Amino acid sequence: MSFLKYKKYSIEIRNRFFLILFAWLICLNTCYYCKEIILFAIVKSNNSFLELSNKPYFIVTNVTEVFYVYFELVLFISNQIAIFVLIHQLFMFLSLGLYQFEFTKLKLLFKLFALSWLFSFILLIKLIVPFSWKFFKFSRGFNCNKYCFFFLEVKLNEYLHYFISVYYICLISCQFLTLLIIALTSLSKELKNIKAFRRLFYIIFIIFSTVITPPDILSQIFISSILILAYEITIFLKKLRLVW
Fold first, then answer.
1. Mean pLDDT, rounded, for 179-187
2. Where are the transmembrane segments (predicted)?
3. Coil, strand or helix at 148
């Protein structure tokens, strides 16, 4: 009987694996045929970059650079969708052996991470990328003693690497914030136990901000302030919940 169950589970795992692989191949094929549209959408979303010149453009220094950029872009988009499908299939596979309250908690956790993923992407497109490019917009006309000028010409592959790097930083930050909120909620039912971990969480926030941000103090202060503010708001809401 145990062998039959093992065979049944192995067949289900195999079928789900092929389903994930099939979804990844479909996404890869679809993104390949829409690669120009995807690249245009990424560039079009950055208004600060579009304002650098009347006709924004990219430079390439290699014949095969455009091909590799498109390939990396298609692979990046396909992998993100495949990861989401993988998490969903894992959730569906585990849900068969869970109790109802465990299934409810896991379902809520999956929804929170999905919303956090969506929020990180919107934050990236609407705020982080345009805000980071305002530096080049303001420094474009800067000159040093009227002898030294700075003019930005963006390489296509470097812009894509920049976008992907900032995407992962934003995604990790939002997921970490979601984990923090979940941990604070389930840490204790009492407010005093949450306050006891305040210094520890402050140190974790500072270390995390130092790791994910560029080596400048303003970025570290900005990210640390957001995390600390979210932490204090959570404590405040917890206090209101206990009062009412």
1. 69
2. 21-43, 67-87, 108-129, 159-184, 196-212, 218-237
3. strand
Contact present, 195 and 231 (Cβ < 8 Å): no
Helix (H) or strand (E) holding 71: helix 65-95
| Pair 152, 53: CB distance under 8 Å | no
For the entire predicted model, the pTM comes to 0.73
CB 106 within 8 A of CB 92: no
Task: Please report, for residues 95, 138, 163, 177, 227, the alpha-carbon distance to residue 109 in angstroms, rounded to integers and kept in the order given.
Answer: 13, 42, 28, 13, 20
Most confident among 35-49, 83-97, 167-181 (mean pLDDT): 83-97
Residue found by looking up tokens 């093992």 in the block: 6
* Whether the Cβ atoms of residue 95 and residue 192 lie closer than 8 Å to each other: no
Using CA atoms, how far apart are residues 186 and 182, in angstroms rounded to an integer? 6
